[in-house]
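Hypothesis: this fold can be encoded by more than one sequence.
Test: take the structure tokens below, design a sequence, compare later.
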């Protein structure tokens, strides 16, 4: 099969840039796809970061310290950008104006003002495909929940809960980093860094909160500064958002949580949906299991927990008896993005990556959450539709 080769540049050569490189190296893991990414240029302000790519990614032709030089390459079709939040606005806009397709990291701007500027650049360049990185909904168990929602199995929704929890910052001796500073991470704190993962599916389902009451926590006030002293932690560690969703046919509560300090949870993403006819739950803490509870009036209420087979959005060489993991979800997300670049509206399967509109929705919610924290009140959201 002849494949369309998509020439990529990577801006920001840290952990997630390396994950993309690993996914590209594993492309043979996918079955019967007629497209493939090829990383040919990389850029990072730190030359040591690009050296890893030159050492381990044979397709790399150029390495830069100035991203503008990378964008000047007419042979590049697309860019993956993973940089701190304060750099999103300028770099994302420059990528879009250069006519390069973009998969960017969340939250698509340090605040709502920055996000609006990125949205304007998108409106001015409609031929550029832009998506937001969010890999967890590509787990087979999550895809099963998506299928059940699309089938309308739940009846009347009773309640929804979605979250993304870490325990990484429970260690108070962990040195401070850019995510702890408002200047680089923004006021959103853990919401900006983790929240798009939590909101990807609810917003995809059309569950836009009409209001939000936020409880935001700063748990560890300072951390080692790497110079023998201590530096203040300026951003929120944990966030609980109690929301109300109103659709044309129903109204229900939705609880959203993002936590950097959740003891025992290394990297737990989950979604729970309770309904009058059907309920379901999936969590990456048990990646091979999906739980469901079908219900008929008067019948027994019993949860069914089954192993979710390795049935991904894009077929792979892996047998159904094996367990799906984080690196597999990254590969599936990249397959969806490249599929959209190669085929536009005729993708091989219907689940596409998180959109700029969904990222913009997250900014509405996070901005309202900050206002709720300041005032102690429930804040209404206007979606304009």
């Amino acid at each position: 099969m002849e494949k369309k080769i998509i020439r990529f540049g990577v801006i920001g050569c840290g952990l997630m840039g390396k994950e993309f490189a690993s996914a590209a190296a594993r492309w043979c893991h996918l079955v019967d796809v007629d497209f493939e990414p090829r990383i040919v240029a990389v850029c990072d302000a730190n030359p040591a970061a690009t050296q890893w790519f030159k050492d381990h990614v044979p397709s790399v032709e150029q390495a830069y310290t100035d991203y503008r030089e990378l964008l000047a390459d007419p042979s590049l079709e697309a860019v993956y950008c993973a940089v701190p939040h304060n750099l999103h606005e300028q770099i994302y806009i420059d990528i879009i104006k250069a006519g390069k397709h973009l998969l960017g990291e969340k939250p698509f701007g340090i605040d709502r003002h920055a996000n609006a500027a990125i949205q304007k650049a998108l409106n001015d360049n409609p031929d550029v495909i832009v998506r937001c990185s969010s890999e967890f909904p590509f787990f087979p168990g999550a895809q099963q929940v998506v299928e059940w929602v699309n089938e309308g199995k739940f009846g009347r929704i009773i309640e929804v809960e979605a979250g993304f929890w870490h325990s990484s910052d429970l260690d108070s001796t962990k040195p401070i980093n850019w995510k702890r500073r408002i200047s680089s991470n923004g006021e959103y704190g853990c919401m900006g860094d983790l929240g798009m993962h939590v909101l990807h599916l609810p917003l995809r389902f059309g569950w836009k909160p009409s209001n939000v009451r936020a409880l935001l926590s700063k748990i560890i006030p300072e951390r080692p500064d790497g110079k023998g002293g201590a530096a203040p932690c300026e951003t929120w560690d944990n966030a609980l958002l109690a929301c109300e969703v109103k659709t044309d046919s129903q109204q229900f509560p939705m609880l959203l949580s993002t936590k950097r300090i959740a003891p025992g949870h290394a990297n737990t993403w989950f979604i729970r949906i309770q309904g009058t006819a059907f309920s379901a739950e999936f969590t990456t803490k048990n990646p091979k299991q999906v739980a469901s509870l079908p219900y008929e009036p008067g019948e027994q209420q019993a949860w069914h927990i089954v192993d979710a087979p390795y049935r991904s959005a894009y077929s792979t060489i892996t047998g159904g008896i094996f367990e799906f993991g984080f690196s597999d979800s990254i590969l599936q997300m990249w397959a969806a993005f490249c599929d959209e670049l190669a085929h536009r509206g005729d993708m091989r399967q219907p689940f596409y990556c998180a959109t700029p509109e969904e990222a913009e929705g997250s900014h509405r919610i996070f901005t309202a959450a900050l206002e709720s924290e300041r005032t102690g009140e429930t804040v209404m959201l206007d979606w304009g539709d």
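The first helix runs from residue 15 to 25. The mean pLDDT is 96.
Hypothesis status: open.
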